C-alpha cells in the first residue's frame, strides 16, 4: 500500500510505500559536468556539458541558470562553444565528431559530422576554427556554409580549447605534449610558447594580453606571459579543470564535476556553482560500511550518513585510474572490481593508485558482481552477453539477452541479470546456454538490481520506480514511485559514442547498493544525487 502523502525531492514528487523513509545524501547537481566556457554577447557564461548533453547559460550576478540546448535536442554532446559577431553559437560535439550552429533565431543546424573528437573551437573575425582532441588530431578552419575544411596542422597530440591572442596568433594547448603553441590563422610554422605544465586544456587571454590556462591534471590555473613563457599560479584547485572565461574582468573556471569557480586575487577563490555528480552510476558498500560511487570520470567515497560530502578517491587523470568507471563491486581490503566504458574489467586499488586489467576488448560493460565461487560476472550490453572472468580467461554464461545491465546473485547462487530492453529480470543458466528463466517481468527498463534477505530489489528507470520481489513467493511491492532516475519526462536521450582513449560509448545506469543495516542506496542519475531508503522498524 502506498502512502497518500508525497515527498518532494528537487521538485519531484516521490511516493513511498508504508514504513519506508527516504533521505537524499547529496544535493542535486546544478550542472551535469562543466566543460567548455564562453562569455556570450549577453554577458552570461555559456557552459557546454558533454555527459549532460546540454548547453546552459549562467548569469554570474543573479546565479540564474537557463537551459539553452536541452538534453535530447539537436546538439548531442557539446564540449566547447564560441560565438560570431551575429550572435550565432557554435558547438563542438566531441563524442559524435560533430560541429553544430545554433543561430541567434534559436534554430540549430549541423555543420559537420566527420570530425573525430571535435573539441576546441573559437571564432576570430567571423572565421571559425576547430581542433580534434585525439592522437593524430587536426587543427582547421571550417566554412559554415559547407565548404571543405582548410587544414592548418595535422598529427597533433590531443589539442584542446583555444583562442586568438592580441597579437593575432591562434594559441592552443596540446594535452599529449603538455605545452601551449601558437600559429598564424592563415597557416605557417607553429611555435611553442610554454611547456612542462599541468596538462593544459584551455587557453584564454586576460585584459593585459597574458594567457590564462586551466591544467586538468594538476588543478592549477596559470597565467603565462606569451612573450617568454614565464608563469604564475593564480589558483590551485582540484584536478579536472576544463576551461575558463572572463566576465567584466572576473575570471571563472569549470571542472568536470560541474563546479564553476571564480578566481580572485592572491590565490583566493569563490565557488559560483557547486560541483556534484555527472551522473552517478553503479554503487557498492565496502567492508568499512562506506558507500562507493562510480561516476565515470570520478570514483567517490561517501559516508552512510552523507556527512563530510564526497571524497574523491580517483579521477581520470589520477595515476592508476582504470578508465571511465561504470560498474563497481567491493571485494574487501579497499579493493574493487570495476567495469569501464572502454571495455575493461579491472581490479582497482584507489589507496595505492593501482589497477589491474582482468579482461579487455569487451563491448559496453555495465553491472558487475562476484559469484560465490569468486568469479567476476559482468553484463556486456553491446553484445547481449553475460560473462564470467576468472583465472585469466573469459567464459560466456549467456547470450542473446536484450540490453543486459545489472547483475546480482540470489541466495542459492543463481546469477540474476536485468534486461533493460526486455523489461525483465532473468536467471542465467550458465555455460553459454541461450535459455534463461524469467524471475520478474512486466518491467519497463530495469537497471540496477540487488538481492538482500531473500528480496530482489529492482530500479526500473522506465517507470521510475523501485520494486521489491520476494524470491520465494514472487510477490511484488512497489517501494517508491516517481524517482528521479532515467531520462526526464518527454526526453529520449541520444547515445554518446565515447571519447577514445578516455572512454567508449556512454549510457545511463541507475545503480543500487545495500548497507549492513539494510539501508538501500540509489543513484538518482536524473538529478545527480544519491538517495538512502530505509525501512523503519515496526
UniProtKB/TrEMBL annotation:
Q: Name one Pfam family in it.
A: SGL
Q: Which domain of life is it from?
A: Bacteria
Record's InterPro entries?
6-blade_b-propeller_TolB-like (IPR011042), SGL (IPR013658), Vgb (IPR051344)
Matches recorded under Gene3D superfamilies = TolB, C-terminal domain (2.120.10.30)
SMP-30/Gluconolactonase/LRE-like region domain location is 32-246
What PANTHER family does the annotation carry?
BLL1406 PROTEIN, VIRGINIAMYCIN B LYASE
Q: What is this protein called?
A: SMP-30/gluconolactonase/LRE family protein
Q: Which organism is it from?
A: Streptacidiphilus jeojiensis
State the taxonomy lineage: Bacteria, Bacillati, Actinomycetota, Actinomycetes, Kitasatosporales
Amino acid at each position: 500500500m502506498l502512502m497518500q502523502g508525497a515527498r518532494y525531492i528537487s521538485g519531484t514528487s516521490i511516493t513511498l510505500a508504508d514504513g519506508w523513509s527516504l533521505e537524499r545524501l547529496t544535493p542535486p547537481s546544478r550542472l551535469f559536468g562543466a566543460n567548455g566556457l564562453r562569455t556570450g554577447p549577453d554577458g552570461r557564461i555559456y557552459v557546454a556539458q558533454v555527459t549532460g548533453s546540454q548547453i546552459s547559460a549562467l548569469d554570474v550576478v543573479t546565479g540564474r541558470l537557463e537551459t539553452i540546448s536541452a538534453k535530447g535536442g539537436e546538439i548531442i554532446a557539446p564540449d566547447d562553444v564560441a560565438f560570431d559577431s551575429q550572435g550565432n553559437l557554435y558547438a563542438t560535439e566531441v563524442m559524435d565528431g560533430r560541429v553544430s550552429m545554433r543561430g541567434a533565431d534559436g534554430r540549430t543546424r549541423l555543420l559537420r559530422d566527420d570530425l573525430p573528437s571535435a573539441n576546441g573551437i573559437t571564432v576570430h573575425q567571423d572565421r571559425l576554427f576547430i581542433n580534434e582532441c585525439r592522437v593524430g588530431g587536426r587543427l582547421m578552419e571550417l566554412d559554415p556554409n559547407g565548404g571543405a575544411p582548410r587544414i592548418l596542422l595535422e598529427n597533433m597530440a590531443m589539442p584542446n580549447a583555444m583562442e586568438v591572442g592580441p597579437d593575432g596568433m591562434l594559441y592552443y594547448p596540446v594535452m599529449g605534449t603538455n605545452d601551449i603553441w601558437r600559429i598564424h590563422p592563415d597557416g605557417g610554422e607553429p611555435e611553442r610558447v610554454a611547456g612542462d605544465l599541468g596538462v593544459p586544456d584551455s587557453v584564454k587571454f586576460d585584459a593585459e594580453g597574458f594567457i590564462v590556462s586551466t591544467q586538468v591534471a594538476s588543478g592549477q590555473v596559470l597565467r603565462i606571459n606569451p612573450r617568454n613563457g614565464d608563469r604564475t599560479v593564480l589558483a590551485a584547485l582540484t584536478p579536472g579543470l576544463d576551461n575558463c572565461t572572463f566576465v567584466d574582468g572576473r575570471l571563472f573556471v569549470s571542472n568536470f564535476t560541474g563546479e564553476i569557480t571564480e578566481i580572485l586575487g592572491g590565490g583566493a577563490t569563490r565557488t559560483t556553482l557547486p560541483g556534484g555528480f555527472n551522473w552517478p552510476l553503479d554503487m557498492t558498500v565496502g567492508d568499512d560500511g562506506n558507500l562507493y560511487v562510480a561516476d565515470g570520470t570520478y570514483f567517490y567515497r561517501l559516508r552512510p550518513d552523507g556527512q563530510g560530502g564526497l571524497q574523491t578517491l580517483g579521477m581520470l587523470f589520477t595515476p592508476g585510474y582504470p578508465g571511465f568507471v561504470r560498474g563497481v563491486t567491493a571485494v574487501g581490503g579497499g579493493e574493487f572490481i570495476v567495469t569501464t566504458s572502454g571495455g575493461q574489467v579491472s581490479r582497482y586499488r584507489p589507496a595505492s593508485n593501482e589497477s589491474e586489467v582482468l579482461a579487455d576488448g569487451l563491448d559496453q560493460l555495465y553491472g558487475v558482481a562476484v559469484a560465490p565461487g569468486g568469479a567476476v560476472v559482468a553484463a556486456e550490453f553491446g553484445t547481449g552477453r553475460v560473462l564470467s572472468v576468472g583465472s585469466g580467461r573469459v567464459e560466456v554464461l549467456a547470450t542473446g539477452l536484450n540490453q543486459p545491465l545489472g547483475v546480482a546473485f540470489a541466495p542459492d547462487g543463481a546469477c540474476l541479470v536485468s534486461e533493460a530492453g526486455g523489461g525483465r529480470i532473468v536467471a542465467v543458466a550458465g555455460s553459454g546456454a541461450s535459455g534463461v528463466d524469467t524471475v520478474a517481468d512486466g518491467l519497463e527498463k530495469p537497471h540496477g538490481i540487488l538481492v538482500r534477505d531473500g528480496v530482489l530489489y529492482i530500479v526500473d528507470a522506465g517507470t521510475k520506480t523501485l520494486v521489491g520481489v520476494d524470491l520465494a513467493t514472487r510477490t511484488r511491492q512497489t517501494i517508491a514511485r516517481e524517482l528521479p532516475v532515467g531520462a526526464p519526462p518527454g526526453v529520449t536521450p541520444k547515445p554518446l559514442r565515447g571519447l577514445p582513449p578516455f572512454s567508449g560509448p556512454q549510457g545511463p545506469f541507475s545503480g543500487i547498493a545495500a548497507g549492513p543495516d539494510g539501508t538501500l542506496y540509489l543513484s538518482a542519475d536524473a538529478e545527480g544525487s544519491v538517495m538512502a531508503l530505509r525501512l523503519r522498524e515496526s
